[in-house]
Amino acid sequence: MTLFPDEMTAILVVIVVGFLPNEIWRVLGVVLGRGLDENSAWMQWVRAVATALLAAVVARLLLTPSGTLVALPFLLRAGAVAAGVAGFLLIRRSVLAGVLTAEAVLVAGAWWLGVGG
Amino acid sequence: MQPSETDADTGPAFRTGYFLRGVAGAFSVPGCVLMATFLGFGGLLHDVGFPIGAGLVSTLLVWALPAQVIMVGGIASGAALPALAVAVCLSGVRLMPMVVALMPLMRGRRPHMWLELIAAHFVAVTMWVEGFRLLPKVPVEGRPSYAIGLGAGLTAASMVATAAGFYLTGSLPGPLAVALLLLTPISFTILLVRNARERVDWLAIGLGSALAPLVANTPGGLDLFWSGVGGGTLAFFIARLWKAERT
Lengths: 117, 247
Fold this sequence. Notes:
Shape of chain B: globular
Oligomer: heterodimer
Order of helices and strands of chain B: HHHHHHHHHHHH
Number of strands of chain A: 0
Structural class of chain B: mainly alpha
Radius of gyration of chain B: 20 Å
Shape of chain A: flat
Order of helices and strands of chain A: HHHH
Number of helices of chain B: 12
Largest sheet of chain A: none
Low-confidence stretches of chain B: 1-8
């Protein structure tokens, strides 16, 4: 699969589509500094959109995965993530514990179903 | 927490000693978790056929995994580039309050625009958490250099992990390759749960993910835009109405 004609085009796309629209917020953070009210309605809306966007990214990764993950049933993919959240909440809110729980469920499930091996 | 105010600031704004201490500070448990998630990102790059050179540039310059995944996943699915730029821009909004909150700890005694911009570039979730933990222990005059060292160390480690993930995916046995690809969604989900404090956050998580399958085939590759802006806006207004009704 070729997404770009050459590496330079790919790098240019990364700069224009990825770097610039993302970096502007960091620059604004430095420039605006303290003049910004974090609790204004505008900022609350912006935070809600950013949260929903990240949740949508996760949902898309789980619903229409790429590569080897496709071989696993949706319920296993979603179940592994749910187990990871449970692991995170139950084991001292440790990110590492959550990630390891999810991975254990996924690999065990894949092994049991005989997929991906 | 209060730094000593005694010694006059006469030295240079950038100090190599503090920079190197910052680099060393990058190698901690959160640094390792971050490396693991970039292993997953490298696996994703390999999976969708994204060139590794451009992938490494994205880790260095974008330095925000959600934005990188939106961009790479979107390009792979053939989304329109302007729509992707908008989605990336929306996902980056959360960086601004992080920069605003962390900046007082990254400033030296005198304001120095360039050092501040470079330090701010490294601000992302891990840098934010680690900055609040480590920077208060650093003398004020060394903070800009230390923050840049910490960011550079985290970035360098993540670039190594990106490359490793890219080249490992092809040669890993099935179950491990699958595990690598799950790292991105699981770390994002835990991030969301960890940062959710108020009702509006939970509503945004629920609506954003519930809308995603409904708008999945929106023409023009705008699906992330609709589930993000639509779900977020709905969550914002529902939370407001709820609050208004209770008071």
